[in-house]
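From the methods appendix. Each design record in this collection lists the tokenized structure first, followed by the designed amino acid sequence. Records were kept in a plain field format so they could be parsed without special tools. The example shown here is representative of the layout used throughout.

RECORD:
FOLD TOKENS (378 positions):
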């Protein structure tokens, strides 16, 4: 097992009716900017619950954050927040709203020039406004981590940053807020959480026995509960289990002592930036092909995963079982399924990686050349 240090300051507030706790969680003296996405929180009653809990507070609203949030939109929120002199941000929505809000919190206090440097140049975040979250779409784990992914429309880039200064002060998770999610978003959330686990688990064996079992527990639970949620969208227990799985998939605990490999996400981000695939769609396309190209390094873990999670023998059987699971819940796994030519994707993404001189993988062996080969087989 590798050495590690771990601290997570997020106050996770879970369960039905928990939005009412906002009145105690948000400091009463704060002027709040409420950030949200396309307006589903108006239709499903979440906005009304939030505003009731914040009654008597000063609240400024900013909506319209995209499913893959744009830097350009975030900068409009920064301008509004500065003009209104807000001192607390409340993200209400899915992981994209949370990621955007983390970026907004950092950008408001950034004094190093262009805030995009936080992502493109990994400029240090030295200060950020405090933020909290009300999660309505389980997927990214952003409610309990310090990471953020934001796109820039003008340059077709999708990049990430992380800083302990953008950990949410609290995150409220009420499974009932997910009842009205469209099937596509529910499936995306399951796949996103599944792949998050894999990026921390499907590497080489470092004898982190407990962390392996914890990762496998999340995977088994997601597989088990996904079909229940899709069959009965108002099944509270199934929704609760999926919601908590998504949080545990990326709150940092599964990575402790492990060697991670975020290659699937790095390639997937480029597919979203260039071709507009949903984040989870891009991951489901990339991961099986990447595993096959990295079979030499990942064989032992693939065999362990296949046996413990799906009850199958052999690395290729484990990959096929994963593809079958994705297909069973309605997630496609080939670029052609989304009208994207693999050769075009390979060319665009590998050229970008070559230009940036990027390499990924637990063995730092996934370069531009290997990236092209992986995507040609997607």
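DESIGN:
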């Amino acid at each position: 097992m590798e050495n590690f240090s771990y601290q997570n300051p997020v106050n996770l507030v879970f369960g039905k009716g928990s939005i009412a706790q906002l009145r105690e969680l948000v400091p009463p003296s704060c002027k709040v900017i409420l950030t949200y996405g396309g307006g589903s929180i108006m239709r499903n009653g979440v906005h009304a619950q939030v505003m009731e809990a914040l009654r008597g507070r000063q609240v400024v609203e900013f909506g319209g954050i995209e499913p893959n949030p744009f830097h350009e939109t975030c900068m409009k929120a920064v301008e509004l927040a500065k003009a209104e002199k807000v001192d607390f941000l409340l993200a209400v929505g899915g992981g994209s709203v949370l990621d955007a809000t983390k970026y907004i919190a950092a950008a408001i206090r950034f004094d190093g020039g262009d805030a995009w440097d936080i992502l493109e140049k990994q400029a240090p975040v030295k200060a950020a406004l405090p933020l909290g979250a009300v999660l309505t779409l389980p997927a990214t784990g952003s409610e309990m981590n310090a990471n953020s992914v934001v796109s820039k429309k003008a340059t077709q880039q999708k990049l990430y940053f992380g800083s302990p200064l953008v950990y949410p002060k609290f995150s409220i998770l009420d499974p009932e807020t997910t009842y009205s999610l469209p099937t596509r978003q529910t499936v995306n959330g399951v796949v996103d959480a599944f792949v998050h686990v894999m990026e921390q688990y499907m590497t080489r064996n470092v004898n982190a026995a407990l962390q392996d079992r914890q990762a496998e527990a999340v995977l088994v639970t997601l597989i088990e509960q996904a079909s229940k949620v899709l069959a009965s969208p108002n099944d509270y227990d199934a929704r609760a289990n999926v919601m908590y799985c998504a949080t545990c998939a990326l709150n940092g605990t599964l990575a402790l002592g492990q060697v991670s490999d975020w290659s699937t996400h790095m390639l997937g981000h480029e597919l979203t930036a260039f071709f507009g695939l949903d984040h989870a769609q891009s991951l489901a396309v990339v991961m099986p092909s990447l595993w096959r190209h990295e079979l030499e390094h990942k064989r032992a873990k693939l065999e362990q995963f296949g046996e413990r999670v799906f009850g199958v023998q052999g690395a290729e059987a484990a990959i096929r079982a994963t593809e079958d699971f994705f297909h069973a819940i309605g997630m496609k796994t080939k670029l052609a399924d989304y009208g994207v030519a693999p050769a075009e994707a390979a060319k665009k993404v590998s050229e970008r990686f070559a230009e940036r001189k990027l390499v990924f993988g637990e063995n730092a062996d996934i370069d531009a050349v290997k990236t092209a080969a992986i995507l040609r087989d997607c």
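APPENDIX NOTE: DSSP finds 15 helices and eight strands in the chain.
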